[in-house]
Amino acid sequence: MIVNKILRNLDNFDLKDKKVDFANISNDDRVKKILRVKSNNGVEIGINVEDELKDGDILAILDDSVVAVKILPTDVLEISPKNLKEMGIIAHNIGNRHTPAIFEENLMIIEPDSLIEEFLKNQNVDFKKTKRVLKTALRHANHSH
User: Fold this and answer.
1) Per CATH, is 2-71 categorized as 2.60.260.20?
2) For residue 102, which of 68, 130, 131, 140 has the smallest C-alpha distance?
3) Per residue, what are the HEC states of the chain?
4) pLDDT tens digits, one per residue of 78-111
5) CATH superfamily label, 74-132
């Protein structure tokens, strides 16, 4: 089966009596334009979409089930700045390393990086290593110097 567009998302789809068959996709693979996956029930799907895949995206609606994307948890550092000044210092140093970051609530979320971890420890910044399903992929912003 070839999928050229995301049909809907589980967040806004009435399943009625349909079961959900998940296709597990890594955080890195969610941004690929062309991807081949197999759902938990063995449905093989070729995905050719422009947009980044999101957790719960419906790839196919079958007679008794829907095949949906399940984004797998990925290793991250969750940084919890104490105040605006600390956030600015952290963001400046992360930006200098061109490290992709996501900002959610009061957290800065980045990929694990031993040099940044060492910097955070030296600055007495609260952070933790964890696994997390990200709402969007961590990726570099396009820019030039």
Assistant:
1) yes
2) 140
3) CEECCCCEEHHHCCCCCCEEEEEEECCCHHHCCEEEEECCCCCEEEEECCCCCCCCEEEEECCCEEEEEEECCEEEEEEECCCHHHHHHHHHHHHHCCCCEEEECCEEEECCCHHHHHHHHHCCCEEEEEEECCCCCCCCCCCCC
4) 999 999 999 999 999 998 888 999 998 889 999 9
5) UreE, C-terminal domain (3.30.70.790)
pTM of the predicted structure, to 2 decimals:
0.83
Give the whole-angstrom CA distance, residue 45 versus residue 69: 11
Domain boundaries, the chain: 2-71, 74-132
Per run of 10 residues, the mean pLDDT along the chain (length 145 residues) is 94 92 95 94 95 95 95 97 94 90 92 94 96 84 53
Same fold, 2-71 and 74-132: no
